[in-house]
Amino acid sequence: MAGISNDAFNASKGLEEHEEELDVKYCTSVVLNAARALAFAAALLFNNAKLLLRTKRDAFSEARDAVRIFATLLREILKPIFGSEFNESWAVLGFVDSLAISMKFEDLRPLLQTMVAFLTANPAREVAVLNITAAHAQVLLTALEEAQAAVTLQETAVGMIKDDRDAKFEALRGKVLQLFGELSHLMDPLDRRWTAFGFNKPGAMETPDVPENVAVILIGPNAAATKWGASARAEYYRVWRRVIGVDAEPVAVGSPADLDFTLENLPAASTIEIYLSAVNNGGESQLSEKITIVTH
């Protein structure tokens, strides 16, 4: 979503600057910004829905923990009667094959239902001072079921809201593509205004690869010969130098089309870094790895 948001923002800024002069008729700033507003509103709704889902899941966790505490306490109270290890007597409490108390709703719900039935049928086993009663068990069961239902309902809502958000962002993407298509009829493929809309120039080549195999050899007290391997898609190259202690950043000193260049008038007794970049109408590569020389 971030990518199309940025694309739409850049396209909107381009329309602010050039819509009138280009006479854009279809994907105007009004049309594009309306699609942006719908998409961003849908994204906000989705984020809020996820926060609400988290709240409902927290509420379910609290309800589940309360059930497990109740079931654990009742189990401990009845161990002197039914035994400290699982046996068939424990089935009347809802335990199956083990006295372990699950974390899963699908296990806790029938366990607590059986405990409600047991305490209802055996009121003498209730311990009111500890709130171990059929009535309290029913309250916990209802709270657990309602919390689980609320989570399920919100999960469904989040899924539907996500689908709506995705559809609106896809519609926004369509508007950006529509603008690109319209601009293709209004501007030259190499028009500088393409970048104002956040688009690459359609007529521009892909940026060249970074030059490799750069070699620099001193050929005199103040000159150095530089050679390098050809870079894919390069139309020409830039040679850069940085004199340590003098230049804060590399400085361009030549733009050869060939694969060699002689640096002249180098300062004496200096440490100098040499870099290469490759250039075409689509842009410029990053600088090559530095080669360091020391003049005498």
In summary, what is this structure?
The protein has 296 residues and is α+β, with helices and mostly antiparallel strands. It has four helices and eight strands.
Q: What percentage of residues falls in helices of 4 or more residues? A: 40-55%
Bulk shape: elongated
Low-pLDDT segments: none
Total E-strand runs: 8
Q: Beta-strand level of the residues, as a percent range?
A: 5-15%
What radius of gyration results from the CA coordinates?
36 Å
How many separate helices? Answer: 4
Number of domains: 2
Series of secondary-structure elements, N-terminal to C-terminal: HHHHEEEEEEEE
Helix-strand category: alpha+beta
Largest β-sheet summary: 5 strands, antiparallel
N-to-C span: 56 Å
* Arithmetic mean pLDDT: 95
Give the key terms:
alpha+beta, 2 domains, 3-stranded antiparallel beta sheet, 4 helices, 15% strand
Structure, described:
48% of the residues lie in helices and 15% in strands. With 296 residues, it is α+β, with helices and mostly antiparallel strands. The chain folds into 2 domains: 2-183; 215-294, Immunoglobulins (Immunoglobulin-like, Sandwich), CATH 2.60.40. The strands form 2 sheets. Strands 3, 4, 6, 7 and 8 form a 5-stranded antiparallel β-sheet that branches. The protein has a 3-stranded antiparallel β-sheet with strand order 1-2-5, with no helix packed on it. α2 crosses α3 (105-121) and α3 packs antiparallel against α4.
